[in-house]
Amino acid sequence: xxxxxxxxxxxxxxxxxxxxxxxxxxxxxxxxxxxxxxxxxxxxxxxxxxxxxxxxxxxxxxxxxxxxxxxxxxxxxxxxxxxxxxxxxxxxxxxxxx
Amino acid sequence: xxxxxxxxxxxxxxxxxxxxxxxxxxxxxxxxxxxxxxxxxxxxxxxxxxxxxxxxxxxxxxxxxxxxxxxxxxxxxxxxxxxxxxxxxxxxxxxxxxxxxxxxxxxxxxxxxxxxxxxxxxxxxxxxxxxxxxxxxxxxxxxxxxxxxxxxxxxxxxxxxxxxxxxxxxxxxxxxxxxxxxxxxxxxxxxxxxxxxxxxxxxxxxxxxxxxxxxxxxxxxxxxxxxxxxxxxxxxxxxxxxxxxxxxxxxxxxxxxxxxxxxxxxxxxxxxxxxxxxxxxxxxxxxxxxxxxxxxxxxxxxxxxxxxxxxxxxxxxxxxxx
Lengths: 98, 322
Hints:
The structure holds two protein chains of two kinds. Helix content of chain A is 62%, strand content 18%. Chain A has helices at 7-11, 18-34, 51-65, 67-72, 80-97, and strands at 2-6, 14-15, 38-42, 48-49, 73-76. The longest helix of chain A has 18 residues, at 80-97. Chain A is globular and about 30 Å long. By secondary structure, chain B is an alpha+beta fold. Chain B has helices at 14-19, 42-55, 71-75, 108-118, 126-147, 176-185, 190-198, 219-229, 293-314; strands spanning 2-5, 29-33, 60-62, 99-105, 153-160, 165-172, 234-239, 241-245, 267-270, 276-286. In chain B, the strands form two sheets. Chain B has a seven-stranded antiparallel sheet, with helices on both faces. A three-stranded parallel sheet of chain B has the order 1-2-3, with helices on one face. Chain B starts with a strand and ends in an 8-residue tail after the last helix. The chains are: A alpha/beta, B alpha+beta. Chain A binds chain B through residues 11-14, 16-20, 22, 25, 47-48, 50-53, 55-56, 59-60, 63, 80-81, 84-85, 87-89, 91-93, 95-98, and chain B through 108-109, 111-112, 115-116, 126, 130, 133-134, 137-138, 141, 145, 201, 208-211, 213-216, 218-219, 222, 293-294, 297-298, 300-301, 304-305, 308-309, 312.
């Protein structure tokens, strides 16, 4: 099963609202991972994001689900900047989990 | 309290402005200006505005002879926060300046509105808009989450065509950085607290590497790094302390080197200023020097990674040599 989350619908074209990130994380991402779904975070029409937004969105899934999160979290239509920020969060979260 | 707005309102000379602050009598605010010419950075404005909000409009005044250039204070909205009527008249519709006047942001939805509706007033390119949105997004969020203030974050920005630069000021009258860091890190002084807040991976909410689910301790480090790469000033004033990142000289070619330890950056610091209960952050961004944002993020990310690795290694058990 797949869960598609179109981020632009909730957060607009610049992802900085951590309250919105928390809602997406707790109400959509975590329950979907718990059910074993693939979660597709679709950044279509999102031009940028802050590091703190991405952290608020994915750090708990990574810490709670570990390898399952790495397997099942998929990032779609992320531009270069957003990919870089997601990569930074992935790296420091893994460093902190060792 | 008394504030003097001089004709030298820029981050290079900001220490003089801070030294001249009189923060005694916290129930009343008087703002005076140079009598011939006023030059203010958004940082001067947001600090004045935050204090005016704190004491209330009825207790805030702009006094003395205000020169013609004082019109700028009106355009930026400072008169609206005081009980002094503006002596200037102009048609607001004729305003074509590239600035964001003083705005108050109290929650996440105010912040999203500000970012989507106000930043376009600076008329920047898409790439530069991204940088400004990033900086304001992170700084305002810090206030909303960590400052514990009912007055919110006071924000203003100005584009300067002559130097092709954007200046941003964000101020709050909340608990200040020292109190925010005390619970977990116990800094010995206000300047130590600021330096901790600038260190990658250090957040006031936990000692755990990787932070909490909400905070990683990266925001201020990223912004200081953006200022350094774009060869500009970055300033924090909180409590009795000020930390100012100095401009990276243009004669040194290539990307400025980033350091995890803010003490290694060319900077100016003091712990002896009038005690300000709150936090002021100011940054200049030279648009000529803005590299591709992705490239900038990559460099910052590398330093962030190695800072966390180094801190982990510090905790490793050491061999006992006898």
